[in-house]
Amino acid sequence: KHAPLNPFTMVLTRAQTRAGPEKKGNKRKRQDGRQQSTIKRAKLLGGRNEDEQSVNCSATYLTSTDHKANPIASWVENSHWPESFFDRSMDRVLARKKSASSVGSRSRKRSQPGSASSVTPSDQKPREEKSARYRDVRYNEELQDKKSYMMDSEQGISDESKKQIVRLLNSEQEPPQDSSFSDTLFSRTCQSVVDRNEARINRDITPELVPSAEKLTHRGARKLGCLVESINEGWSNSMPLTNPRPQPDYSVGFKRGAFSEAQLAKIAPMIGNRIAGDQSKIMATYLIYFPFLSCEVKCSSTSLEEADRQNAHTATLAVRGVVELFMVLEREHEIDRKMLAFSVSHDHRQVRLYAHYADFKEGDAKYYRHTIRTFDFTELDGKEKFTSYRFIKNVYEIWMPQHFSMICSAIDQLPGYSNPGVTSLQESALSHHLERYSLSQSQSEIESAHESQQDATPNTSFTGAGPAKKQRRRRAS
């Protein structure tokens, strides 16, 4: 008699009986097949062909670990651009991402009763408040600590720029139509703004000295269609040298539509998310790229030195954007001591015109200012009342196109990347930030409304400090 078999042993025995002895040839074929399958999987994981990449790009773009090919994915996932995408020399021009906490804190601050921002937005603060820092003569030293000087360098501005300045001053321009500086209105206009505030001077005098680029475009100057202007807007998208950030009375730069899609893709890492408020070295406001003109207005009770300090800060940022772009490409010799921006300081009777440039004498960039003209436009019965107007209009029509072409040539030389998902990802990222910002605003508004309601309404909660109301008894039917 035999001992009963274990059930597991019986199952194993039956399986072996059915299968029979395995031949060595079949076993070798199975091993070869497994090896070939493993090799194929390794090839597929190691790198897919171009057709598969183009088909699956939209699906795998955000999850791809190849951040060099997908820089936007790295920005979305890690809040910074991939180091492998750029040379280390390009780090200096990358945008500074705005943190989500700053957006939320700004919204909460805006909603708090009694806070300055809840009463007056930053761009609408009184002119005296925004320029308080610049009244101190020690601000000049602060600028010098940042390598910005309100004077000429040792070598001065380049000879080529000097010739350009002469041309900009002397090239004829038609006087503006319906001007407040016409022969019949000039004296009356100047008298009407004596002892008036900056807002009045900005309204009546500034357009006669610094023509509006957008208005000229509307009146037929089509080649100025690439320009966009701002009036008393804070340069919130620029990395300031000092605090507070610039807020010129008037400024001009290039609009987004002036650049091609390919150029915008190349400078995208330098811009970041402009809608969300990322800070850049090539932007002023979220609408202005590569600014080149700023204007500051003062009234009779304020010194023009204050306006000069404001313009020095603003123009340094304007020049810096071009300098950083060309330094990345090692083309700084092309812009050495060449004027890259202009500024105008004026009050009810005096005008100061400046050109701003960078000097690379010691390798690194230092920023300087060249005086073009300073004069009283009311003297000699207004003999030079249109000098500033003519000069700025020539800047728009003669100097600006050459400056823009130079910037575009540098942008075209930047390293680029091609990925069909980039545009859609940028749009989705902007939408995400806008949605998050609006949600934070809505939440803060709800919280502030709730707080105000609690302040205005007596406490009726059962958990509050006040007495609870007694429930009414039902009447017997």
3D architecture notes:
- By secondary structure, the chain is α+β, with helices and mostly antiparallel strands.
- It is 45% helix and 10% strand.
- The chain is elongated, with a radius of gyration of 33 Å.
- Mean pLDDT is 76; it is low at 7-15, 48-65, 101-121, 418-435, 437-442 and 444-470.
- This is DUF7924 domain-containing protein.
C-alpha geometry = elongated
Largest sheet, in brief, is: 6 strands, mixed
Beta-strand percentage range: 5-15%
N/C terminus separation: 93 Å
- Overall SS class: alpha+beta
How many helices? The count is 17
Radius of gyration, in angstroms, nearest whole number: 33 Å
Protein name: DUF7924 domain-containing protein
Pfam families: DUF7924 (PF25545)
InterPro entries: DUF7924 (IPR057684)
Organism: Photinus pyralis
List keywords for this structure.
single chain; 477 residues; alpha+beta; six-stranded mixed sheet; 17 helices; 6 strands; elongated
Task: Summarize the helices and strands and which ones pair or pack.
Layout: H1 7-19, H2 24-46, H3 50-60, H4 71-78, H5 100-111, H6 116-119, H7 127-130, H8 139-145, H9 159-170, H10 186-192, H11 198-204, H12 206-209, H13 213-218, E1 227-230, E2 250-254, H14 261-271, E3 289-297, H15 304-328, E4 339-346, E5 350-359, E6 366-376, H16 387-413, H17 421-456
Parallel strand pairs: 3-4
Antiparallel strand pairs: 1-2, 2-3, 4-5, 5-6
Helix pairs in contact: 5-17, 9-16
Biased composition (Basic and acidic residues): 124-149
InterPro entries: DUF7924
Biased composition (Polar residues): 112-123, 454-463
